[in-house]
Amino acid sequence: MKKITPKVSYDSDADILTLTGVAGGRIDHASKLGNFVVHFTKDNRPLLIEVLEASKIFSNSPKPVRKMAGLAFA
What band does 59 get if pLDDT is binned at 50, 70 and 90? Predict the structure, then answer.
């Protein structure tokens, strides 16, 4: 099984945390559940996960979690 290393990025202007590289392939469709948007391949493997309003979601998280995610808010 091929090891996939996800990448985490944060866009402070849009306040979106993005997790990419969850699986290989092309985006076919997406599903939104609350503040989460998951983009899937045709065979329903997740490729990209977006956390909308990330600063609100992670504001009560421990500082190491916020730092690991690259979140610039306190």
Answer: confident
Better-scored residue on pLDDT, 21 or 2: 21
- Name the nearest CA neighbour of 25 among 42, 5, 13, 7: 42
Structure tokens at 29: 């469709």
Structure tokens that stand for 5 in this block: 């290393």
b/e per residue, 39-65, with b = 16+ CB within 10 A?
A: bbeeeeebbbbbbeebbebbeeeeeee
Check if the beta carbon of residue 23 is closer than 8 Å to that of residue 41.
Answer: yes
From the list 12, 16, 9, the residue with the least C-alpha distance to 50 is 16
Tokens 């990448």, residue located = 7
Q: What is the CA radius of gyration of the chain?
A: 13
